[in-house]
Each structure stands twice: as structure tokens, then as C-alpha cells.
Amino acid sequence: MEMGYQYIVYRERDHLVLIRLGPVPQAQQYAFPGVWKESPHMNDLRFDPGCQMDYREVTEEEAEEIRLQLQAEYDSRA
Fold first, then answer.
1. Cα 21 vs. chain centroid, distance in angstroms?
2. Tens digits of per-residue pLDDT, 7-19?
3. Quick one: which of 7, 35, 48, 53 could link to 63 by a disulfide (CB 3.0–4.6 Å)?
4. pTM of the entire structure?
5. What does the radius of gyration of the chain's CA atoms come to, in whole angstroms?
6. d(CA 67, CA 27)
7. How many other CB atoms are there within 10 angstroms of residue 34's CB atom?
């Protein structure tokens, strides 16, 4: 994983959503088919504490484990 990111995750139904926040305004979501997609609306998480209530911060190592889990899920769809 790349250095200098903050990783956050939340559960949407039975699916985990992994977000990484880099230098402002960079915000990305790990999405099908297994790529980081720009998600500028996620920058709200930086500035509006109310938006963060469903999210939890994870370490880079935890984020990598979640990313691999998501990738396995995406691969099974293909």
C-alpha cells in the first residue's frame, strides 16, 4: 500500500466499503473490479464530523487485509 493515506471503512449491508484519504482533495474508494476510484464526495468526511459516525479508521495493514478480501469478492464476480 502507498504511504501517507488515512484509511476508513464502513459496512454497507453485507459489503465492506474501503476509503482512502490522501492529501486534500484526494479521496478514493476501492471498487469493482478492484481499482481505486476517485470519490471526491468522500472529502466531506474530513470536514463534517457527523458524516464520520458510520466509519471507523483502520491501519494500513488492516486496510490491506480488507482490500484483499474485497478483491477476492470482486474476482468471484468475474
1. 8
2. 999 988 888 999 9
3. 7
4. 0.84
5. 12
6. 16
7. 15
